[in-house]
């Protein structure tokens, strides 16, 4: 795992660090081809320059966000924002169902909206895959 992600995790409480450590390890295992970095102050993974998944410490939870998640048709993921993103929030590591997470990550690879070029298209999203 890249040092900038490790540093992000080290600033968290032990409970939140355990959540983020598990999320990162499953993401790295399932999307080994993805590039990742701290983007807008939290860890985000990209496929061909397009953001697909990331997580962020919020006041009362850790939010796992899938940029194209509304297209996954998964009941556990809640709509987030005005585009195609969906999220799930965790307050404990034991809440993470690894099989679900891996399925969502496979969908993140297969179903993508073009967030990379959203500014160029003046806020209009186009579907890339799926």
Overview of the structural elements:
- Helix content is 29%, strand content 28%.
- With 130 residues, the protein is of the alpha+beta class.
- The protein has one domain: Aspartate Aminotransferase, domain 1, CATH 3.90.1150.
- The strands form two sheets. Strands 1-2-3-4-6-5 form a six-stranded antiparallel β-sheet, covered by helices on one side.
- Helix 2 packs across helix 3 (98-110).
- The longest helix is centred in the N-terminal third of the chain and has 17 residues, at 14-30.
- The mean pLDDT is 92.
Describe what is shown at a glance.
With 130 residues, the protein is an alpha+beta fold. It has a single domain, classed as Alpha-Beta Complex (Aspartate Aminotransferase, domain 1).
Q: Alpha-carbon distance between the termini?
A: 29 Å
| CATH-defined fold name | Aspartate Aminotransferase, domain 1
Major sheet strand order: 1-2-3-4-6-5
Please outline the major beta sheet: 6 strands, antiparallel
Provide the residue-averaged pLDDT: 92
Uncertain runs:
none
Number of helices: 3
Task: Walk me through the topology.
Elements: H1 3-10, H2 14-30, E1 35-39, E2 42-47, E3 50-57, E4 62-66, E5 78-79, E6 86-90, H3 98-110, E7 112-113, E8 127-129
Antiparallel strand pairs: 1-2, 2-3, 3-4, 4-6, 5-6, 7-8
């Amino acid at each position: 795992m890249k040092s900038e992600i490790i540093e992000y995790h080290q600033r968290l409480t032990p409970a939140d660090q355990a959540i983020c450590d598990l999320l990162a390890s499953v993401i790295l295992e399932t999307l080994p081809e993805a590039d990742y970095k701290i983007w807008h102050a939290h860890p985000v993974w990209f496929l061909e320059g397009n953001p697909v998944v990331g997580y962020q410490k919020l006041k009362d939870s850790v939010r796992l966000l899938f940029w194209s998640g509304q297209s996954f048709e998964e009941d556990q993921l809640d709509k987030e924002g005005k585009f195609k993103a969906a999220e799930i929030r965790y307050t404990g590591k034991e809440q993470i169902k690894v099989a679900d997470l891996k399925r969502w990550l496979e969908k993140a690879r297969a179903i993508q909206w073009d967030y990379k070029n959203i500014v160029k298209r003046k806020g209009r999203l186009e579907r890339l895959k799926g």
